[in-house]
Write a structure and sequence with these properties.
- The protein is built from 6 helices and 8 strands; from the N terminus they run βαααβββαβββααβ.
- It has one domain: 2-Layer Sandwich (Alpha-Beta Plaits).
- The two termini are about 20 Å apart.
- By secondary structure, the chain is of the alpha+beta class.
- The protein is globular.
- This is EthD domain-containing protein.
- It comes from Paraburkholderia fungorum.
């Protein structure tokens, strides 16, 4: 679960980031489809007062997207669930006039950008996400990010230190030379916490 956090990036200060991001992991597409189906786990979760209030807020736009996970660092399983982290959530969009094929762009990103990300001082976790096809009964718009990534640090100070390191400058230089998707990107610092969700029996009420 991610909520807005803090961090200093010399190359940008994106505003109007998400109020809440629920990032859920599934072992396979079938499990995902079942959770997103009518009367599935997500539909029951969204009946909770907190989520119902968010959906009813006039300024709240809710979206969903399913993505494949590429994990480049071992998950921090040793950390207690209540431990907070600072996460940099990044999304890349593809412009309509982009002349770069996505496969070529992604190959360049994975080959050259990811090794630089792995060199960030204080890095705890790094994951890269690409879209997959999915089915969903949820009444929310489908986000269309071409690619996302998650870079995790112990706290906002560690994130800021990493973003002011030579690695960040090297990442910027690579972005200038790399193929362009033409749609821009967003970078949001978030405060993150891992939660273990307990399966809810269909007969159970909450």
């Amino acid at each position: 679960m991610h909520i807005p956090g803090a961090g200093s990036d010399p190359y940008g200060d994106d505003v109007d980031g998400p109020t809440l991001v629920l990032q859920c992991y599934f072992d396979n597409p079938v499990a995902l489809d079942l959770a997103l189906a009518g009367h599935g786990a997500f539909e029951r979760l969204l009946q909770h007062d907190v989520f119902r209030d968010l959906q009813e807020a006039s300024a709240c736009e809710v979206s969903q997207q399913a993505m494949l996970v590429r994990r480049y660092t071992p998950p921090a399983d040793e950390a207690p669930c209540e431990t907070q982290r600072c996460t940099y959530l990044v999304a890349y969009e593809r412009g309509e006039a982009s002349s770069t094929g996505f496969d070529a762009w992604l190959a360049d990103y994975l080959t050259h950008h990811v090794p630089l990300l792995q060199a960030f001082p204080g890095l705890l976790e790094l994951e890269v996400y690409t879209p997959v096809h999915w089915t969903s009964a949820l009444p929310f718009a489908r986000a269309q990010a071409a690619q996302r990534n998650k870079v995790v640090f112990a706290d906002s100070a560690a994130l800021s230190d990493a973003l002011h390191s030579p690695v960040r400058h090297a990442l910027r230089e690579h972005s200038r030379r790399a193929p362009s998707l033409g749609g821009g990107s967003t970078h949001y610092p978030m405060t993150s916490r891992s939660l273990q969700l307990r399966p809810v029996n269909d007969r159970e009420t909450t």
